[in-house]
């Protein structure tokens, strides 16, 4: 009973456009009308009159309007399902087709995927860094409720902490913790571990259970228990599963290991800052410091009560701060400025921002650079796709002629670029892992337990996926639109398209050359700055100096044993053959180990005024001679500058000039007399401008951590003897002996990293731009074969042809060069703080960049130009 | 056709009748309506508006599919045919109905 117009199934194949709501409603109306007409006709053939028949038909039909509405609703569902099914099947078709095409041109595919892998991988690697530093949640239970409390400064005293615990009602738990470095003695080996001393509720407040054993609890009365970090357990105890219950010596005291924390747990510390162990605060050991409200040594971490916001907690805690400020006026105003903020994310770095600002700026720079390289890569792929679009004119023409819709074709071409981008993105993730590994090994050279958590997470996957999709659209859309915008007839006849089709490619080349030019310029500046950094005089002489970094446990200081111990050590060093001089200091300049900065009051200023910020180092007699910082006026410290003797300091030239117009001797700083002036030297980074620096007398206040500097004619021999002597003197002292030149080399890490990364990205960008130029020229030559043939036939020489082809690239390359140098110089101005002794407008770097860009352009266009010169006029004219 | 006492349909019965009607091949809505009326001697009648609703609902469930074709009198008409899933559905619904009907008979006509 059916009479089909078309064979079954063909309708769906051809119904490309989705039906609208109105179409569906019309269909239903038509269907109903047909039904009624048929019924009327049937009734009339039974002899019913037409008006009666229609009335009966309508009656039998029931409520038409409601029926139509319900039908249309169902119809819309059907339509939606059908559209989705079609999209899926088309996507599958396109993907299969695209995959086949990619397999068929392995050269193109390899180049494109590699380009994208490098470009996307670079970006993913940088993002993983940002992710690790700012986005990953603090690895604790409900991290959004964990906050830090600053009582006007990052550190708080024990009595203040107790007051906050007693008076605050916004926290469910308040804990304190502070960094502690201790010597671990276990398995007959010693190691220096950086961990935390905490209140007993610290680990339970964070709510992370131990993976092995248990954490210590608020109810624990024992203080000789230690919880290890997973890393410590793995590297120091070979992941011994029966570690719980083992006794170790930590800082000279016995501890029992009660648990091991899960991997990645770092307490409430900022991202990347590891802790290697946790021990409870021993009230007996630090009784005196726990009672002193002025001894600010703890950081407060707290958990908000359910439903309390950070702002509410801050308001409530500020009230306590104001009360405390009134009750203890001797502590100053700052208590009133109590702050509460999240412990995770970028806020977790509060208090460290000053030190880490260069790092953040550097990450920002890397993000920009990696983004630029991705743009260059996209331009390149777009160029390749344009070329392919041109060579597939015929195929696309045929499909258009057969009735394929343009948007459908664009979708198919986009699926191809999407396929490329996804493959490139997957390879990029692998690359990002590798880059991440090398970043961590670079970070590992820094003298602190720092490890970036660069493991793959959902955020990274989403980022890379989004980036891949963006890339696919960015490099695929324009070529796809271009390829499908054609008149069908000439395409089928294989006529050559008009030459103005290359305009887009030329613009791509301008962009590519410009971006890679900027990258090259920056890498040039960084390389120059690195070589400058090597040449810059730090103001001291690190060669031939051996450092012995002594770390004593805190109780040794208290017993007053440290001064005699150091005196004995000095007398033993004195007799080591080859030793010329020795001295001690708290800080090794340029080694990124320790930095002390404080306000000091000058005698020249009124009493109520705040003193200027100065850098501080604590040094012993002989230190200046050992590192060869010349004394310009006054005297060095002597053995007589000991505790009890009048306080003395030595200042650098800059301090003398800024504070006392160069006449510093006899003046007073913080009620200590200036007895000497020494020449300026670098303190924190090699590129810095020298700031006022005050040297205090180490012997007047010995500390538990000190570095012995020894100038010797035999560094290797001295290092060995030094190590042996210290071990003989006191085997519990932890000592790290190395060359001062090695320690100072850390100062070059930022410059080296900057140079390496920008050079790498610059080289990558240039390579990509070269490929782009090669593509442009090769494409042009292929398009102009006939024209070049005619030129040869009427007498042009091969040299004329080469010149003609190469000169075609001159305009886009020239434009790219100029805009790139402009962009690069602008960027360099912003990057000035990373550069050492280089002006943003550095003629040498600009010249080298120009030569490189012009040279690579020539190289890239020569090959296709030579091919053009070999065109055989006869054959060229015959190709039709 | 003389008016007969018609029974209102039990829930879901309309679907079964439609699917069963289409077992004979694709048909348009009017043909289905006539088939049901003729096969049940006019005892069971589906109100036409409900019939079309059921047809569209069955289509949305994927048991039948629709396409436009030409009717016997050369008018454009929408034809419905069973899909593979639909064929499966008729068989299972019929067997369920038989069991149901037998059970009901056993109750109302005790042996």
Fold and architecture overview:
The complex is a heterodimer of chains A (880) and B (111). In chain A, strand 17 and strand 18 (672-678) form a beta hairpin. Chain A folds into 4 domains: 10-104, no CATH class; 143-343, no CATH class; 355-443 and 453-535 and 749-878, no CATH class; 553-732, no CATH class. With 880 residues, chain A is an alpha+beta fold. Chain A contains 27 helices and 21 strands. The model of chain A is unreliable at 1-16 (pLDDT under 50). Chain A is 54% helix and 14% strand. Chain B has 111 residues and is an alpha+beta fold. Chain B has one domain: Winged helix-like DNA-binding domain superfamily/Winged helix DNA-binding domain (Arc Repressor Mutant, subunit A, Orthogonal Bundle), CATH 1.10.10.10. Chain B is 53% helix and 14% strand. Chain B is built from 4 helices and 3 strands. Chain B has helices at residues 13-22, 29-39, 48-60, 84-108, and strands spanning 27-28, 64-70, 76-82. Chain B has a 3-stranded antiparallel sheet with strand order 1-3-2. In chain B, a hairpin with a 5-residue loop joins strand 2 and strand 3. The longest helix of chain B is centred in the last third of the chain and has 25 residues, at 84-108. Chains A and B meet through helix 2 and helix 4 of A and strand 1, helix 2, helix 3, strand 2 and strand 3 of B.
């Amino acid at each position: 009973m059916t009479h089909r117009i078309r064979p079954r199934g063909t309708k769906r194949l051809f119904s490309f456009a989705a039906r609208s709501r109105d179409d569906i409603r019309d269909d239903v109306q038509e269907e109903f009308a047909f039904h009624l007409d048929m019924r009327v006709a049937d009734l009339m053939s039974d002899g019913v009159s037409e008006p009666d028949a229609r009335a009966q038909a309508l009656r039998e039909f029931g409520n038409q309007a409601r029926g139509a509405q319900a039908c249309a609703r169902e119809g819309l569902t059907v339509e939606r399902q059908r559209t989705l099914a079609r999209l899926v099947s088309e996507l599958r078709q396109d993907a299969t087709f695209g995959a086949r095409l990619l397999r068929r041109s392995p050269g193109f595919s390899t180049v494109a995927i590699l380009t994208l892998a490098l470009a996307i991988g670079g970006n993913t690697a940088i993002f993983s860094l940002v992710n690790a530093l700012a986005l990953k949640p603090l690895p604790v239970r409900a991290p959004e409720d964990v906050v830090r409390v600053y009582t006007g400064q990052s550190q708080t005293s024990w009595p203040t902490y107790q007051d906050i615990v007693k008076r605050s009602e916004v926290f469910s738990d308040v804990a304190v913790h502070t960094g502690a470095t201790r010597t671990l003695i276990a398995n007959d080996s010693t190691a220096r571990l950086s961990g935390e001393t905490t209140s007993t509720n610290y680990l339970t407040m964070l709510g992370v259970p131990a993976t092995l054993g248990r954490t210590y609890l608020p109810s624990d009365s024992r203080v000789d228990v230690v919880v290890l970090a997973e890393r410590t357990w793995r590297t120091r105890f070979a992941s011994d599963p029966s570690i719980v219950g083992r006794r170790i010596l930590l800082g000279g005291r016995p501890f029992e290991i009660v648990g091991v924390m899960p991997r990645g747990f770092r307490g409430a510390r900022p991202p990347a800052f590891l802790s290697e162990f946790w021990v409870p605060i021993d009230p007996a050991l630090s009784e005196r410091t726990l009672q002193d409200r002025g001894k600010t040594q703890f950081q407060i971490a707290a958990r908000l009560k359910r439903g309390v916001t950070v702002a509410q907690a801050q308001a409530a805690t500020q009230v306590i701060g104001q009360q405390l400020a009134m009750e203890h006026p001797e502590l100053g105003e700052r208590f009133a400025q109590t702050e509460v903020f999240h412990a995770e994310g970028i806020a977790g770095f509060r208090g460290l921002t000053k030190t880490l600002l260069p790092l953040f700026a550097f990450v920002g720079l890397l993000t920009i650079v990696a983004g630029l390289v991705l743009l260059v890569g996209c331009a390149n792929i777009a160029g390749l796709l344009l070329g392919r679009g041109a060579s597939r004119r015929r195929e696309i023409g045929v499909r258009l002629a057969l009735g394929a819709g343009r948007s459908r074709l664009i979708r198919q071409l986009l699926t191809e670029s999407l396929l490329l981008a996804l493959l490139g993105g997957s390879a990029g993730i692998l690359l990002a892992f590798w880059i991440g590994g090398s970043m961590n090994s670079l970070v590992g050279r820094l003298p602190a337990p720092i490890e970036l958590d660069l493991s793959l997470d959902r955020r990274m996957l989403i980022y890379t996926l989004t980036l891949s999709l963006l890339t696919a659209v960015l490099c695929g859309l324009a070529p796809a639109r271009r390829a499908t915008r054609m008149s069908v007839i000439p395409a089928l006849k294989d006529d050559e398209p008009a030459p103005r089709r290359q305009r887009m490619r030329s613009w791509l080349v301008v962009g590519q050359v410009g971006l890679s030019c900027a990258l090259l310029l920056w890498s040039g500046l960084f390389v120059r700055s690195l070589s400058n950094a090597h040449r810059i005089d730090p103001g001291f002489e690190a060669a031939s100096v051996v450092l012995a970094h002594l770390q004593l446990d805190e109780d040794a200081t208290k017993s007053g044993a440290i001064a005699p111990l150091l005196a004995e050590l000095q007398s033993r060093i004195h007799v080591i053959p080859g030793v010329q001089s020795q001295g001690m200091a708290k800080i090794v300049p340029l080694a990124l180990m320790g930095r002390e900065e404080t306000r000091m009051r000058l005698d020249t200023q009124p009493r109520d005024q705040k003193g200027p910020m100065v850098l501080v180092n604590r040094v012993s007699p002989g230190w200046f001679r050992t590192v060869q910082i010349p004394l310009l006026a006054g005297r060095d410290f002597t053995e007589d500058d000991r505790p009890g003797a009048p306080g003395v300091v030595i200042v650098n030239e800059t301090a003398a000039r800024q504070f006392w117009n160069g006449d510093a001797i006899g003046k007073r700083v913080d009620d200590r007399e200036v007895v000497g002036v020494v020449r300026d030297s670098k303190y924190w980074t090699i590129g810095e401008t020298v700031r006022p620096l005050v040297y205090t007398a180490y012997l007047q206040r010995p500390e538990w951590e000190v570095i012995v500097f020894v100038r010797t004619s035999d560094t290797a021999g001295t290092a060995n003897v030094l190590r042996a002597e210290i071990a003989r003197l006191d085997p519990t002292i932890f000592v790290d002996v190395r060359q001062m030149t090695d320690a100072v080399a850390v100062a070059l890490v930022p410059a080296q990293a900057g140079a390496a990364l920008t050079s790498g990205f610059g080289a990558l960008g240039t390579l990509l731009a070269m490929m782009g130029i090669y593509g442009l020229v090769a494409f042009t030559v292929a398009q102009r074969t006939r024209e070049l043939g005619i030129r040869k036939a009427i007498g042009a020489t091969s040299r004329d042809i080469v010149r003609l082809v190469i000169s075609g690239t001159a305009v886009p390359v020239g434009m790219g060069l100029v805009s790139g140098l402009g962009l690069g110089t602008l960027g360099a101005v912003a990057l000035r703080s990373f550069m050492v002794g280089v002006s943003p407008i550095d003629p040498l770097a600009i010249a080298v960049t120009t030569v490189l860009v012009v040279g690579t352009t020539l190289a890239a266009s020569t090959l296709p130009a030579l091919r053009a010169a070999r065109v055989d006029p006869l054959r060229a004219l015959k190709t039709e | 056709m003389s008016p007969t006492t018609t029974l209102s349909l039990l829930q879901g019965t309309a679907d079964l009748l439609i699917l069963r009607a289409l077992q004979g091949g694709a048909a348009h809505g009017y043909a289905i309506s006539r088939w049901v009326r003729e096969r049940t001697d006019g005892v069971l009648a589906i109100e036409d508006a409900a019939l079309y609703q059921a047809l569209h609902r069955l289509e949305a469930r994927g048991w039948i599919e629709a396409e436009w074709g030409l009717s016997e009198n050369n008018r454009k008409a929408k034809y419905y045919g069973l899909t593979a899933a639909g064929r499966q559905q008729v068989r299972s619904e019929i067997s369920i109905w038989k069991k149901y009907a037998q059970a009901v008979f056993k109750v109302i006509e005790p042996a």
